């Protein structure tokens, strides 16, 4: 088995507020293999974005990583060999972390309108990143001139399917349509040859037809460069198309994870099953009541005891669901689930 | 030809005829009009009493402007919006003045997309939901309290919540409050503009179920504007597809999804990701960008992106016709193309 590129182990992130502390991420573990697409699904407030921000050490105050490791297999500075480093140990604003952001791990944010500065051309913003991480293009450290970096941007724009790349480099983000802006964002994320790409709902703000084009582009680039992708979305259709493996999150914990086919065709956790049932399908019966998940997401200050899903669960096993927190245990070929229906191990809290 | 004929024997509640809404583009010191954004360009369709008509299309296709014209949130440039009132009197909403519209407002209500932006954060639920009642003459406070309590129960919220403020509620609950407010005046037509697109999937299912239930209980008519085809397919009796300000296809839901006749409709459906990893990812059939409604292409607006376009499509604008009863399409080759989808 290949060693994982990124390995998140028992991550806990809490936000200390005046009213008490919120456990946004409460013991999350998953692996990302090189060149693989991991889909992360979950509803608002499940901790998926905070987990991703933790990887890049971008969690803002009062958020704090309380516990856990984020192990990243990093290329050595001279390009020879690899070493495993724990990202949680690095200083947020330190040189090492800044060298990782963009160059090793890049982010495609959700809202491309808000992600680009409106007062600089998109080309300038990408050129800046390339010049900053020039070693990704010139490992000997000789640096890149502005004109050379600009050439790279034009090539990248052509790669991501932006027509008239020479002109578009000098455009401002507000002069581009939603689809073009998202493509420019992808070009920016790829500009420093990252090995891991975190795509945080990259297609939520755009139309289905544009979404289909962007997804096809990401698949093609992923094949071409072998970049590993963590794909966050709430759209299960997108996950089914993109991911090799899926992590289902609920209230800051991993409910279930496994290969994409197992998650869609043999889901084991009651939450995954309920989530899959609740989406209107483009092939199913129409105008009938959809099965829903009972109740609402609990308030963050009011976390249920035991399994976080037990008050809404329709397959609850018994009193142990409210008493103990089920741990994430492997149950099948690469599939792990945290539910007492499948095993009896619990986490100590 | 307009989309008025139908096999449906129900009476139309709303008849839209040749609706146009052009926004002027101005330039220079004197704001001279240099062109027009043809946001809605010759749209005609009917909404029958008790049905849900889904209106779909990409951003900028004019679906929201169409729905706003019906509510007269924007004033149409030309065309008719014929609405049949409770007493069977037919009025043209497009021609009425503000004062004349006032009594009609109670009969046509709207559910908004953003549950966070559409409720006044400084007003309690009682004031938010009760304001339409006050405006429509229910000045007695205790009467209004009873009505708001009933409405909250109707949408699945506890009447005790009445004196809380919107910030205390989740997105799904807020959308329920918005629905309660829309229903407060006993409307007959409810225009819902993307009512579930801001919600999580599990909450989305709850709100869709609520809308279906309310429709059968209260006999409501919905104009359901959305971009999510699986949601539209789930809730609608008939679906209308818009492209660059024009209606390109309208048909009963089942027919439209199993046998679309317009190449755009079929491409739109193929673009929807199917939540099943065993279904192979289809080829991207729709490339390029939606043209600007300020400067639409010649002939058929869809021809630059259409796989089947011929020379005729570049010059001749197709009219909306009805190749089979109740199925309207704006394409020269609707009868010849085989666009059967997997659905």
Please give a structural write-up.
The complex is a heterodimer of chains A (349) and B (343). Helices cover 30% and strands 25% of the residues of chain A. Chain A contains twelve helices and 14 strands. Chain A is of the alpha/beta class and 349 residues long. With 343 residues, chain B is α/β, with parallel strands linked by helices. Chain B folds into two domains: 1-107 and 191-200 and 217-272 and 283-343, Rossmann fold (3-Layer(aba) Sandwich); 117-186, no CATH class. Chain B has ten helices and twelve strands. In chain B, helix 6 (201-218) links the parallel strand 7 and strand 8. In chain B, helix 3 (125-135) packs across helix 4 (141-154) and helix 5 packs parallel to helix 6 (201-218). Chain B starts with 11 loop residues before the first strand and ends in a 14-residue tail after the last strand. Chains A and B meet through helix 7, helix 8, helix 9, helix 10 and helix 11 of A and helix 5, helix 6, helix 7, helix 8 and helix 9 of B.
Q: Which key phrases capture this entry?
A:
heterodimer; A: 349 residues; Rossmann fold; 8-stranded mixed beta sheet; 4-stranded antiparallel beta sheet; globular; B: alpha/beta; 2 domains; 10 helices
């Amino acid at each position: 088995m290949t060693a994982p590129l990124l390995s998140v182990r028992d991550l806990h992130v809490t936000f200390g507020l005046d009213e008490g502390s919120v456990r946004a991420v409460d013991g999350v573990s998953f692996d990302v293999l090189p060149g693989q697409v991991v889909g992360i699904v979950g509803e608002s407030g499940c901790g998926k974005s905070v987990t991703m921000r933790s990887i890049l050490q971008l969690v803002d105050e009062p958020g704090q990583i309380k516990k856990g490791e984020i192990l990243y297999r990093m290329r050595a500075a001279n390009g020879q060999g690899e070493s495993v480093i724990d990202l949680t140990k690095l200083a947020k604003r330190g040189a090492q972390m800044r060298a990782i952001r963009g160059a090793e791990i890049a982010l495609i944010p959700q809202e491309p309108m808000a992600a680009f500065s409106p007062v600089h051309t998109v080309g300038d913003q990408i050129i800046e990143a390339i010049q900053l991480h020039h070693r990704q293009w010139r490992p000997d450290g000789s640096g890149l001139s502005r004109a050379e970096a600009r050439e790279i941007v034009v090539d990248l724009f052509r790669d991501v399917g932006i027509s008239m790349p020479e002109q578009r480099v000098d455009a401002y983000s507000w002069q581009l349509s939603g689809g073009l802006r998202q493509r420019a964002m992808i070009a920016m994320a790829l500009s420093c040859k990252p090995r891991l790409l975190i795509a945080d709902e990259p297609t939520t703000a755009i139309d289905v037809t544009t979404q289909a084009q962007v997804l096809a582009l990401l698949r093609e680039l992923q094949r071409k460069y072998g970049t590993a992708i963590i794909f966050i979305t709430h759209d299960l259709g997108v996950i089914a198309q993109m991911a090799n493996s899926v992590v289902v999150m609920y209230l800051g914990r991993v409910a279930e994870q496994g290969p994409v086919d197992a998650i869609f065709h043999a889901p084991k956790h009651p939450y995954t099953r309920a989530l899959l049932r609740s989406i209107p399908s483009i092939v199913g019966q129409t105008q009938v009541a959809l099965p829903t998940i009972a109740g609402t997401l609990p308030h963050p200050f009011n976390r249920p005891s035991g399994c976080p899903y037990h008050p809404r669960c329709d397959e609850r096993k018994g009193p142990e669901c409210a008493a103990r927190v089920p741990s994430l245990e492997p149950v099948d070929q690469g599939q792990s689930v945290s539910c007492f229906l499948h095993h009896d191990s619990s986490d100590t809290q | 030809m307009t989309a008025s004929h139908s096999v449906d024997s129900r009476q139309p509640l709303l008849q839209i005829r040749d609706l146009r809404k052009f926004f002027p583009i101005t330039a220079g010191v004197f704001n001279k009009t240099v062109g027009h954004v043809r946001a809605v360009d010759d749209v005609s369709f009917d909404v029958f009493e008790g049905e849900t008509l889904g209106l779909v299309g990409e951003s900028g296709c004019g679906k929201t402007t169409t729905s706003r014209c019906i509510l007269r949130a924007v004033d149409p440039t030309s065309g008719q919006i014929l609405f049949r009132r409770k007493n069977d009197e037919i009025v043209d909403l497009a021609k009425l003045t503000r004062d004349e519209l006032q009594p009609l407002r109670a009969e046509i209500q709207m559910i908004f997309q953003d549950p966070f932006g559409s409720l006044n954060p400084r007003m309690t639920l009682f004031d938010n939901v009760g304001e339409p009642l006050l405006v429509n003459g229910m000045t007695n406070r205790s009467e209004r309290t009873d009505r708001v309590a009933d409405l909250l129960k109707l949408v699945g919220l506890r009447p005790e919540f009445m004196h809380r403020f919107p910030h205390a509620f989740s997105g799904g609950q807020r959308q329920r409050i918005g629905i309660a407010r829309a229903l407060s005046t006993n409307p007959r037509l409810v225009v819902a503009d993307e009512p579930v697109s801001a919600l999580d999937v599990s909450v989305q299912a709850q709100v869709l179920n609520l809308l279906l239930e309310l429709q059968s209980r209260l006999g409501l008519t919905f104009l359901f504007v959305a971009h999510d085809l699986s949601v539209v397919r789930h809730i609608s009796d008939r679906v209308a597809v818009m492209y660059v300000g024009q209606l390109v296809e309208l048909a009963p839901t089942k027919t439209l999804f199993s046998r679309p006749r317009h190449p755009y409709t079929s491409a739109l459906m193929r673009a929807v990701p199917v939540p099943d990893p065993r279904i192979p990812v289809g080829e991207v059939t729709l490339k390029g960008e939606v043209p600007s409604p300020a400067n639409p292409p010649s002939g058929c607006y869809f021809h630059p992106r259409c796989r089947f376009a011929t020379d005729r499509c570049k010059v001749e604008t197709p009219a909306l016709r009805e190749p089979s009863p109740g199925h309207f399409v704006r394409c020269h080759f609707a009868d010849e193309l085989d666009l059967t989808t997997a659905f």
